[in-house]
Amino acid sequence: EIVLTQSPGTLSLSPGERATLSCRASQTVSNDYLAWYQQKPGRAPRLLIYGASTRATGIPDRFSGSGSGTDFTLTISRLEPEDFAVYYCQQYGSSPMYTFGQGTKLEI
Amino acid sequence: EVQLVESGGGLVKPGGSLRLSCAASGFYFNDAWMSWVRQAPGKGLEWVGRIISNAGGAKADYAAPVKGRFTISRDDSKTSVFLQMNDLKTEDTATYYCSWVVPASAFGRWGQGISVTVSS
């Protein structure tokens, strides 16, 4: 089973700043099938990025994903107030054993 | 518009059973792969299981903590997917989400979630 480790656990930033979130896999993620989700309290997760770097439909271009193999990054170029949430990475290349990282809380 | 609506949650005693349903609309369900993901209170996301299309044999796979206790099935005539949960444990307490899985594009759509509490 691929284990995903996200860092940092909590990231404290201000609106307008740049956020960089990391996701490291214990093994190579097949086909770079790595996704990022945003979750706000009491809400379902929302897909932001799939295939490591492709933005999902309707996702603002301030969100970008990069990386391959075992090291992946989610970057939010200029934080908006609505971006403060918890972010999860997920590998879906080793179907069907999809796994999630433990999450990074982005707080103001 | 894609919609996924879960139902069937509630309070159940340890060792009991519960069946969750997820009604889907807005996409061609027959070809869809569907998954269940859960989230214990204050914790992260945990993949539970996935079922592929009937054309692919409707094969279901499960995460280790639920294998042998949970069963995923589908009814394409009702555009619904189900999660039968048996021998429930307190650690199964969570919000359960159903999700539409596109193999190359991850879990693109999610339901609103349904709460399951296992307690005596």
Q: Find the count of extended strands of chain A (DSSP E, 2+ residues).
A: 11
Largest interface: A-B, 25 and 23 residues
Which percent band covers the strand fraction of chain A?
Answer: over 45%
Rounded mean pLDDT score of chain B: 96
Radius of gyration of chain B: 14 Å
**Poorly predicted segments of chain B:** none
Oligomer: heterodimer
Class inferred from helices and paired strands of chain A: mainly beta
Helix content of chain A: under 10%
Could you say which overall geometry of chain A the principal axes of the C-alpha atoms support?
Answer: globular
User: How would you characterize the largest beta sheet of chain B?
Assistant: 7 strands, mixed
Largest sheet of chain A, in brief, is: 7 strands, mixed
Percent of residues in helices of chain B comes to: under 10%
Put simply, the count of helices of chain B is 0
The overall pLDDT average of chain A reads 96
Structural class of chain B: mainly beta
Low-confidence stretches of chain A: none
